[in-house]
Design goal:
The complex is a heterodimer of chains A (about 500) and B (about 260).
Chain A (H helix, E strand, L loop, with lengths): L14 E5 L9 E7 L5 E8 L5 H4 L8 H5 L7 H15 L9 H33 L10 H7 L1 H22 L8 E2 L2 E2 L5 H30 L4 H4 L6 E6 L11 E5 L5 E6 L8 E4 L8 E4 L3 H4 L2 E2 L2 H7 L6 H14 L9 H21 L18 E8 L2 E9 L5 E7 L1 H4 L1 H16 L6 H13 L16 E6 L5 E7 L5 E3 L3
Parallel strand pairs in A: 6-11
Antiparallel strand pairs in A: 1-2, 2-3, 4-5, 6-7, 7-8, 9-10, 12-13, 13-14, 15-16, 16-17
Helix pairs in contact in A: 3-4, 4-6, 4-12, 5-6, 6-7, 7-11, 7-12, 10-12, 11-12, 14-15
Chain B lengths: L2 E5 L2 E5 L5 H7 L23 E4 L2 E4 L10 E3 L3 H17 L14 H8 L16 E2 L5 E4 L8 H10 L4 E4 L6 E4 L26 E3 L18 H8 L16 H4 L4
Parallel strand pairs in B: 1-5
Antiparallel strand pairs in B: 1-2, 3-4, 3-5, 6-7, 7-10, 8-9
The chains are: A alpha+beta (about 500), B alpha+beta (about 260).
Chain lengths: ~500, ~260
Amino acid sequence: MYEHLETAENRDSLKRVVVDPVSRVEGHGKVTLLLDGDNKVQQARLHIVEFRGFERFIQGRPYWELPVLVQRLCGICPVSHHLAAAKAIDQLVGIDPENLPVSADKLRRLLHFGQVLQSHALHFFHLSSPDLLFGFESDISKRSVIAVLAEYPDIGVQGVKLRKYGQEVIRMVSGKRVHGTGAIAGGMNKSLTKAERDYLLEDIDQMIAWAEGSVALIKKVHCSNLPFYDEFATLRTNYLGLTKPDGALELYHGGIRAKNEHGETIIDHIDYCKYNDYIHEEVRSWSYMKFPYLLSLGQEKGWYRVGPLARVNNCDYIDTPLAEAARVEFKAHSGEAMVHSTLAFHWTRLIEALHCAESIKQLLGDPDIMGSDLVAQGEKRYEGVGVIEAPRGTLFHHYQVDENDIVTKANLIVSTTSNNMAMNESVRQVAAEYLSGRELTEPLLNNLEVAIRAYDPCLSCATHAVGKMPLQLELVDAEGKLIDKLIKHSDGQIERDNA
Amino acid sequence: MSKTITIDGKTIPFEEGQTIMDAAMAAGVYIPHLCHQPEFTPHGSCKLCTVKVNGRNCSACTYPAISGQEVLNDTEELINDRKKITQMLFVEGNHFCPSCEKTGNCQLQAVAYHLNMLDNHFPLFYPERDVDASHPDVMIDHNRCIFCTLCVRASHEKDGKDVFAISGRGIHKHLIVNAESGLLKDTDMAATDQAAHICPTGAILIKRTGYQVPIGQRIYDHEQIDQVSLAASGSRPVSALPPSMAVGTENIKNGK
């Protein structure tokens, strides 16, 4: 592995190269490289420099605001935050997942399939397909979805329309394409009308066909570039995610399963309300993002990956036929128990998109989504945990409230946080293997971004207030000259440096 | 022959004892307002209903209609003033519409939309204000109070309780409750009180009911506040929206 590249020893004497911002990802991050005189990489880091602080400012608010408030963390997967928070506040009104009314459960699943479909389509077609179709070091003018639309109009248009369809599912269930309502404590605030259901049914077969076509496309891209695709930024890691009780792929509700690099089970069917007994988070001074790890394996070896690759690796099967066939084909290509290729995130992402499209069709044929029994209520509780498989991976929401229904404590572990260690390791691997010792050019640096993009990171929702983060504030004049600098150290001390 | 005034040149009849607001509403003329509700004694505090009466600025909700008055309402100058007043109401408190449970049912938000208010214009105050969630069924979020006194009047005039009052002056003005502890739980407030349901913003709320009305069925989802307000006053028929049509069949495809 490449841990030795996390912190270089003689940092002041090294040349600094910065990729800032990392483009075509959600949120703001940057990569720094420290190079010696021979252009050898001595240090490589992915920094998440945004600061959000949601865990802090939802304290003091009433719990029923949570699903609507915390979904503002993100404009790409707000539904995942909305539903994770809703699952947590279900418990505050005494409703466990098995007691949620059937209609509400199915509507939430429909909403979430729409979410994962649109997010996966966005990520693959809009953000990543330029790299995969034109090459990692292609001319910068080609590295956008506009170029894809120009040269591969069919692929581009299908991507845009797949995403639109997912958003229409979200709009029908939650009232808006982005940041709607829908889930409330103990259920849902509306079901689908027949007109809304019929509208969604019109295009679903086309969506399934396009999703199937996209799996064929990524398979072709991946397999025609073997072994490069199996080696680039690849890490042999643990994997974590939810599965159904029978081991099937699950996105909305299930137990936690983790497997090691050989496919051996580390934990399985764990009640996610007890996540704290299995997962801890480590803080490092140079990033706003925490580093989670499996407690039983420790900080060094316990880090893991989440998201499409982890889910498809971890599950025993997928319960929709086309996606299951695609999964079997995917697993067969590597011949190993677990697929470790980082670029295989894209392949598994599209298998899941196909699964979502198939599942949406199943649910649209189910009369329960037009049912009227939508809300249940039980005995008040003071603590709730909601966990869901967001597009980018396992998402944890954990809240405590007081006797007046006010939030007193919150902890969020978002998908990207779980992939933090892996993304850094992938960046170091790419820096060491592909960049080190070469004259750095802009196209070459795109390799780093390609590695980060594979994880589909959502950097903006992954950063929280730890309270001890060092901060640096710089005042620069119009010519770019540094006028003043304030530095807050991790011990809270503030220093001015206006030299 | 009945008595009349003119509003923007249009002749409007009125009865003795009516305010300009009463006469206007009865005739189907909307004058923007927040602190006024026909069933309570007019207060004239929000100043949103400011009109020009014979060249002089007056609050339409408190100013009596007198024969021959020439009233200006829908003028660029007055609309601009009202927009500024609304902007000031927003910056003075902490109004975060995106996550507020009153969104879509909020008169402050609806008036802002009606006046085409597109930004704060003034710098935000970010005042530090509390949430009083001590009462089992009713919550006060002081961040959103605009001191319209509707809760004060409702509690006094309809509920016969005097749970609420306004204390302090100027920028220190704040809503207080009738309890030594200062907490709503120690008053005789009940969720069935009219004062618990009268707030035009999201400052006084019934607990655990937020977001239960889906998008598409909220008060201002399909009509602006002028239409809703006139319908409520009886001068315009209530439009019949089938409650089951959450998104509305006619709007399903065009994305409204």
